[in-house]
UniProtKB/TrEMBL annotation:
NCBIfam families: GGDEF (TIGR00254)
InterPro entries named in the record: Diguanylate_Cyclase (IPR050469), GGDEF_dom (IPR000160), Nucleotide_cyclase (IPR029787), PAS-like_dom_sf (IPR035965), Rev_trsase/Diguanyl_cyclase (IPR043128)
Cellular component terms (Gene Ontology): plasma membrane
Uppermost EC category: transferase
Cited SMART domains: GGDEF
Xref: Pfam families: GGDEF (PF00990), PAS_7 (PF12860)
Documented EC number(s): 2.7.7.65
One of the GO BP terms on file: negative regulation of bacterial-type flagellum-dependent cell motility
Single GO MF descriptor: diguanylate cyclase activity
Protein name, entry field: diguanylate cyclase
Domain GGDEF: start-end pairs: 180-314
Length: 323
C-alpha cells in the first residue's frame, strides 16, 4: 500500500469515526472554508443533508446561526449580523484555544471548544450539555428550596424561629449602631387550646394560617413575621417607635376580632394578646433579652384578661387596654 493510499485509508477511518461520534466537529481551513462537518454537528445545528456547508465559506455557517438562532447569547452577543460576523471571525482567528457556550432558541446549550490546527485552520468541537445544564439548574433550585425550608415555618409560610432570631440579631445591631428605633412584639392567640379541643386540630391549623396571612397582608414588607412555636408569633418592626407599633397592633387586633372563619367552622373566631417593646439605646441587650422582655409584656396581657396589647416599660408593664 502506497503512502497516498495509506493516508486515504486513515482519513476514511477518521471520517467514519467522527460520523459516529456524539460530539459535533467542524473543521475550517486557513482560507475560512469549511472542510468538514460531521453528522452530529449537522444535527446540533438542525441542518438537513442538503444544508451541509462543506466547501462553503465559514460566513455561511455564521450567518445561518445568526438568522436561525437569534437566541444565541454569551460571548457571541451582537446587535446585528455585521457585528456578529466580525466578532465570530475575531474569535475564530485568535490563535488561543477557546471555550464558550451557545444557548439556542430551543433551549439547548452547546459547549464549543476551539482549537487551532497545524495548517493554520480551526477545529470546533461542540458538545450538547443541555442535560448537564438542566441538572445544574435543578440542583440550584433544590438547594434554594432546602434553604427556604430551613428558614420558613411550613404550616404558616412565615419565618421560623431560627430565621427570626437571625434577622432580629441583625436589626438589634443596626439599631444600636445608628440609634434607630426598633420594636419587637410577642403575640399569643387567645384560648387556642379551646379551638383545637372544640373544632379539631385542622381548624386550629386553619386559624394559624389565617393569622399569619393577615399579619403578612397588614404589616409592611420591611417587617418580619415569625412563628416562634405553637400559637406564638413574633414581629420585628424596624424604624418603628413604640406608639406606632401599638397603633399597628391595635388595628390588626380589631380586624382579627371582627373576623369569622365560617368556611372553617361556623362561628369560629379568635383574638390575640401581644406584648411589645421598643429597644432601649442605653443598654447593650441582645436579641434574646429583647424577645424575653416582650414576652414579659405578653404575660401581662394574658394575665390582664387577654385580647389586649401591653407595652413593656422598665419596672412595670402598662396595659394598653382591650383592643
Amino acid at each position: 500500500m502506497s503512502t497516498t493510499q495509506m493516508t486515504s485509508t486513515i482519513n476514511e477511518i477518521l471520517v467514519d469515526y467522527l460520523d459516529i461520534c456524539q460530539n459535533g466537529f467542524t473543521i475550517i481551513d486557513a482560507n475560512d472554508t469549511i472542510l468538514y462537518q460531521n453528522k452530529a454537528q449537522a444535527a446540533m445545528f438542525s441542518l438537513e443533508a442538503q444544508d451541509m456547508m462543506i466547501g462553503r465559506h465559514v460566513d455561511a455557517l455564521f450567518t445561518w446561526l445568526y438568522i436561525h438562532n437569534r437566541g444565541i447569547h454569551g460571548v457571541l452577543d451582537a446587535p446585528n449580523l455585521e457585528a456578529w460576523l466580525r466578532e465570530a471571525h475575531q474569535r475564530t482567528r485568535s490563535t488561543a484555544s477557546d471555550m464558550f457556550e451557545l444557548t439556542l432558541l430551543d433551549g439547548r446549550t452547546l459547549l464549543v471548544t476551539k482549537q487551532s490546527t497545524a495548517q493554520k485552520g480551526v477545529m470546533f468541537i461542540c458538545t450538547d450539555i443541555s442535560e448537564q445544564k438542566w441538572l445544574q439548574a435543578e440542583l440550584v433550585r433544590l438547594h434554594a428550596e432546602v434553604e427556604q425550608l430551613a428558614l420558613i415555618d411550613e404550616l404558616t409560610g412565615v419565618a421560623n424561629r431560627r430565621h427570626l432570631m437571625q434577622q432580629l440579631r441583625h436589626e438589634v445591631a443596626r439599631g444600636q449602631r445608628y440609634r434607630q428605633p426598633l420594636c419587637v412584639a410577642m403575640i399569643d392567640l387567645d384560648h387556642f387550646k379551646r379551638i383545637n379541643d372544640h373544632y379539631g386540630h385542622p381548624a386550629g391549623d386553619a386559624v394559624l394560617r389565617h393569622f399569619a396571612s393577615t399579619l403578612t397582608e397588614q404589616m409592611r414588607n420591611t417587617d418580619m413575621i415569625g412563628r416562634v412555636g405553637g400559637e406564638e408569633f413574633a414581629i420585628i418592626m424596624a424604624d418603628t417607635a413604640l406608639d406606632d407599633a401599638i397603633q399597628v397592633l391595635t388595628r390588626i387586633s380589631q380586624f382579627i376580632a371582627s373576623q369569622r372563619l365560617d368556611h372553617v367552622a361556623e362561628g369560629l373566631g379568635y383574638t390575640f394578646s401581644a406584648g411589645v417593646i421598643e429597644m432601649p439605646h442605653d443598654t447593650d441587650g441582645d436579641e434574646s433579652s429583647l424577645l424575653s422582655l416582650a414576652d414579659q409584656a405578653l404575660y401581662q396581657a394574658k394575665t390582664g384578661g387577654r385580647n389586649r396589647i401591653v407595652p413593656f416599660v422598665p419596672g412595670h408593664s402598662a396595659d394598653a387596654g382591650p383592643s
